[in-house]
Amino acid sequence: MQEILFVLHGFVKNTVTAMTSSITDNFQKIIGRILMYIGLLLLVVMFIIPFVIFRICVHFTLKIFYGKLYGGLLNGGDLMFAINSRKTVINILIFYSCPRNRFEREALIKSFIGKVHSSTDKFRCSIKKIFGYLYFIKDQIKSHEVLKMVDYNTAYITKNELHDYIEKNCLTISANQMWKVSAFRQPICNDGTNDSESPQYVMVITVVHCVGDGPAVASVFKKVLEEDLSKSRDLPIRKHIRHSRPSLNLSDAFIYRNPLTSELNTRELKSANNFNWHVVTHIETKRKYISIVREIKRKLGVNFMDVIGAAIYSSINDYIMTRNIKMNTFTACKVVRVNEKEEQEILNKTYNLDLMNTSSLELFDVSYGEIQNIKDRILHIHRISSTMHNSIDYLFFLNLQQIVTYLPLSLLRFICSRFMSSVTIGITNLVGFNKSSYCGCSIDDILFHIPDIFQTGFILSIFSYADRMSVTLVSGKGYVHNREELQTILDGYFKYLDEAEKEVLGYRFEDTN
């Protein structure tokens, strides 16, 4: 409730200040704020109460009907990612070297899936709908139903074949699935050669986003790979969301970017009659870019995401110019953690998060046009981030998650399409792992990525494994003509990181480890 009051106060203060900018009498401004504040609060309460009562009735009816199998109604962020029939997913690509024969490898994969399956109730649930509300039913998915062994009639699969498979099979998931695993029987070849002495294999794990956000899902797999399930086995479904309270007071509360009046103008980028997603990836073989970003961050006094953001925004800007599209600004979105303790644990790779969606968003406009030098762009993005850190914008999306919990799907889809669709570029830092192994098999590389969130044009997912940067860039339907165009954008991202290294650090970083 405290967060809702903060957001209402911010909206009222912004609106009344704009309406009374010519009025010098502070008393009139105060009265205007009080009246609008009371009016908005009454509207919210009157609108929500009928849905709250109806939802409570649905909850107890389902509890009586299903008994112990009932897992509760979806709420908050979990519900936001389950509103479409084509559910938003998270993909985890695990590259591993295993000297064992085919049958032993498949037995290890089944063992791995079994441990993940037993780690939490959510991986054994299915989702059903009644009267416009979604709810969990426990123990509906068996571990053997999750796995699909993928067989190619070749000695090995190439990186392009892997991307083709992901684009066709792993960017969506059927309505009755919570997660699935595609394990390739053939080894993967990234550079045109195949090391028969130590072949590398890959499996793609596709998880419905309503299970939990990226760091939360990563927590489960991190525990399994570290073979430490003592605290995570049979975790119950969390039914309530608790966010850390904001360290703000009413005099500081303000809205940086008003979601009621700001335009989401990405639609100009979409090509007609083009309904394809595209995926490109890059995995460092040596430590380089993580160290570069850390050094730039230290020298300029900025954040990790400021450097990453400036590079991808600049590359997207280049691509927009090649399309000859008129856009004054484009909308950028950064996924943020509300709890500062969780954020620090993620940076230190010591996180152990509950399996649920507790992230929030920061939306801001990036100027389109002539590119500044990359150092100035980093500092500009940092100024925006610092301003937004002291705003209440992220609280708006947290409150939106809490309020829509009580609404039926039809209203929820309308609200999400208004406030969250057609963002140009989304950036998410999906944490990292230290070097891992599983039952004698070396885990060589891991990629996490989110293919699609509310029709976002491009999503850049950053993941670090053993201090090596893994990057996935995904384009929404119709935003690029082919995978080669998307690869050009990813190449531009690394080009601007190299330019930042040269401008800020003045030397070329080398690390042969």
TrEMBL record:
The chain crosses the membrane at residues 34-54. One of its GO terms (biological process) is triglyceride biosynthetic process. Keywords: Membrane, Transmembrane, Transmembrane helix. Residues 360-487 form the O-acyltransferase WSD1 C-terminal domain. One of its GO terms (molecular function) is O-acyltransferase activity. One of its GO terms (cellular component) is plasma membrane. This is WS/DGAT C-terminal domain.
